Every structure is written in C-alpha cells, then in structure tokens.
C-alpha cells in the first residue's frame, strides 16, 4: 500500500519585530507554518512533517492553499513513492508540486514550495526513523558530521539603539559561545557605519570575528566606497553589497575587496545560483554562498544547486545558508556545508536549536532526533502541534 499524504495544512504566523536592515523593516514580517500529514503510524500517532519559511519573505498561505497543496492531495499516492516502495520520494513530490509551472521567474512560489519541501523531508526522515542529517549522509555516501559551525546574526538598526546597546548585544553572543557575529550596514551613513563597526570590533576583540551585511542596498559606487572603508578591518565577510541579481556589480566589487564576500540569500533557484557563479566574480578560495533552501524550492532544489557548485569547482564547505533554521543545520551536518546562520534573539520560535543544544567554541552538536528535530524544541513544537499534532 502506498503512503498517503492525507492533509497539507498551512497557517500564517507573525515573526514581527521592530528591527530594520538597510532595505526593509520587520514590523509586519510573517512566516508560513506547514504540516504534511501522512497515514503512516509511528508510536501510535500519524507521522506529520513540518516546515516553515525563513525570514525575509512573507507567509505563502495563498499560493500553498490555491496551487501547491491541492496538487499533492490530488496526486495518485503511488506516484509519490520511492522506487523501493517504502517511503515517499521527495523528488517525486517536488515534481508534482511543480506541475504546470513555467521555468524562470523564481519569485515567491519558490518560498511556498520550499516550505512544503521542508515538511516532506521531515516526514521522510521520520518514516525512515532517522535524523535527517544521517539520512542525507547515507543517501549521498558521505560521513555525517554532527558538529556544525554557527554564527550569530543580529546587529540590526532599531529605534533608540546606540553604540552601547549594539556592543551589549554582541557581548551577549560571545557569552553564549559564538565566535563569529554579524551586524547590519548600509542603513546609516558610511561615517556612522564605520563608528558602529569600530565599536563592535573593540567589544569583541580577539574573541570573535565580525561579518557585515548590506542587504543589497548599494549601487556600484556606494558598494565600492564601502569596500574601501571595510577593507581596513579584518572582517569575516562583506555580505550582499548590491542588488542580488546584479552579477556585474558583484564581479566588479571583487577588484576593490580582497577579503571574503558573501551573497546568495535572495537567489531562489539553481539557475540563479549558476548565474552568480558564472558571472558574479565570486572566488571559490574565500567567498561564501548563502542560498537558503527554505526560500528557494527546498532541499530537492538545493541538491541541484550543490551539483552546480561542484561542476564549477566549488566545495559545499563554502556554503553557509541564510535563515537560521534546523533544516539547514541538517544539510550542513549531513552534506558537509561550512555551517549555518543563527539568530539567537530573533524570529523565535522558528529559528534556533533543539532545547539543551549549546554553542561551544562557535559550533553546535546535532542531537539524534528523528526527522529535522523540531520535536526537540518545545516552543516551536507547541506551534506545530497546534496546527497538526
Ligand atoms: O535582515 C535580513 O533580511 C536577514 C539577512 O539578511 C541575513 O540573515 O543575512
Ligand atoms: Mg543577509
């Protein structure tokens, strides 16, 4: 008997906060929480996979309810099974989701699909009775490494935040075991941003490194002006200087910025990733790629992106995804990415780690929980159970 996906539920939840980066504020930010309910029973209860999209894009309830959930629910269950007939095949589910979707134009539909794809992989790993990172490592013939590098993202602009508050925030991350911290730039004048950077560097000293993120705000002239300022400091990276799709700007910037650059969180397909690699001047010996599967058609597509990188001589170690969710932690531990983002104080309960997981020397160790591991995080699992428990 094939496994049946008996329901796909979605609820749009607020993840609002009074912060802003150089481009947007998060006062109205939302996320879609999705449950994929199966008829497989484990420990007396149906297996349910959960997923959600990461911050930066909004909830996708309309697309999920109108297009994507019905396609799965209307599909012949046998068409969604793997070759062995003992589990769902995420690639077949993905192909069903994308029925009658034209190529190109990778806008918000990639977020809707990425969110459902996360829930499908959670269900598949639970049905297999394994942590997702172990399932992935097994399928790809690599050694899982449960120890994953994580960095603390924050340093946002918000009303009344002075240098003292910024320094205290960064100190808080060091106290929690992080060795790399990130702050926003480009939302103030270059003079003010230089002061903010110097204040943070003075605070963190040799205990940690600093990354900066312009969120795609700069035109070429401003991106270069910042590059000239930033290269005075030993930064961990200079992130998303210009528009995410302006590969020529990114390529030109490399001539002015010898240190590591990072980008990719707003590229939503393997084709866009390939264009970045082809035309964006990114350097495989030092730069970082931040594609986030939750925003970009999910893990099925992320695997194609990793293939593109391999074909162009890039190691998966150069990937540190955006988004701070446990899905990317599993991919990092299972497929050897360079690490994962984390927002210690933001976007809760969706981000972060299972309860009891601590950051030690800039790394966490994955617990051995079936699926993605959401059940290990009480505040998150409470929301999930309320949707489909
Ligand atoms: O502020 C945001 O949109 C999030 C972001 O860029 C990041 O985490 O790198
Ligand atoms: Mg960013």
TrEMBL record:
Which first-to-last residue range defines the signal peptide? none
Matching entries from Pfam families are given as: MR_MLE_C
Domain Mandelate racemase/muconate lactonizing enzyme C-terminal: where?
163-260
Q: Which InterPro entries does the record associate with it?
A: D-tartrate_dehydratase, DgoD-like, Enolase-like_C_sf, Enolase-like_N, Enolase_C-like, Mandelate_racemase_C
Q: What is this protein's name?
A: Mandelate racemase/muconate lactonizing enzyme family protein
List the source organism: Azospirillum oleiclasticum
